[in-house]
Design a protein that fits this description.
Length: 195
C-alpha cells in the first residue's frame, strides 16, 4: 500500500474512529469531539472497518472538478483576446467576449487565465517603485545643483564637468549660497541651524 494524502481534519477523524473501534471511546463522545451526529459516526466507522484509514479521506481528492472548463475553450478565449483585445483588462475583455463572440466566461476566471498566460499583471506586479531621495541634514534644507552654465552673450550652452561640491556651512542663513568648482549650491533652511 502506498502513501495516502489526508488533511488534518481527516487524520483527526481516523484517530477518533480508531479509539471508538478499540472501545476506548464511546460513540457519543466521538460525535461531540468531531462535531458530527451519532448516525454519521456509525457511517464513518463502517467505512473505517471495511477499508481502513484510507476510506476516511474525501472521495473527490485527485479528481478534476465537475465545473472544469475544457482546455480548448480556454485556448479559444485567450486566442480571441490576443487577436482582438490585446490591451484590454480582464473585466472589459470578458464583456467583449460575451457581447461580440457569444463567449460567456466570468471575469475572475478570465483574469486567472490571462495572468497564467502573461497577458495581465496583477496590481501588485504593475506597481512601480520610486527611489526615495536622501534626507537632508536639517529641517527645510533644499540643495540645488546646476551642472549647465548658460552663456547669455553667445547663446550657446557649455557643459561643466561634475566636480565635488564643498560642504555646507554649519549654520545656514535664510538664503545662503555657496559657490563651488563650476557648480552653484544654494541652501534655504528657513533660518534653522544645521547640525
Amino acid at each position: 500500500m502506498g502513501w495516502v494524502m489526508m488533511s488534518e481534519r481527516e487524520l483527526n477523524r481516523v484517530e477518533v474512529l480508531a479509539q471508538v473501534d478499540d472501545g476506548r471511546l464511546s460513540v457519543d463522545n466521538a460525535a461531540n469531539m468531531l462535531d458530527l451526529t451519532r448516525r454519521q459516526i456509525f457511517r464513518l466507522l463502517k467505512r473505517y472497518r471495511q477499508d481502513g484509514a484510507s476510506a476516511i479521506r474525501h472521495k473527490a481528492r485527485g479528481k478534476p472538478p465537475n465545473n472544469l472548463i475544457h482546455q480548448a475553450k480556454r485556448d479559444n478565449a485567450l486566442s480571441l483576446i490576443k487577436e482582438n483585445y490585446p490591451d484590454f483588462g480582464p473585466t472589459l475583455a470578458a464583456e467583449m467576449l460575451a457581447e461580440h463572440h457569444g463567449f460567456k466566461i466570468s471575469r475572475e476566471t478570465l483574469r486567472k487565465w490571462m495572468v497564467e498566460d502573461g497577458l495581465w499583471l496583477s496590481r501588485k506586479q504593475r506597481r512601480t517603485f520610486h527611489q526615495p531621495r536622501l534626507r537632508r541634514e536639517c529641517m527645510g534644507e533644499l540643495i540645488q545643483i546646476d551642472r549647465i552654465a548658460v552663456v547669455s552673450r553667445i547663446g550657446s550652452v557649455v557643459r561643466v564637468p561634475r566636480r565635488a561640491v564643498p560642504a555646507m556651512p554649519s549654520i545656514c542663513g535664510p538664503s545662503a549660497a555657496v559657490q563651488g568648482a563650476g557648480a552653484s549650491v544654494s541652501c534655504n533652511c528657513l533660518s534653522l541651524p544645521c547640525q
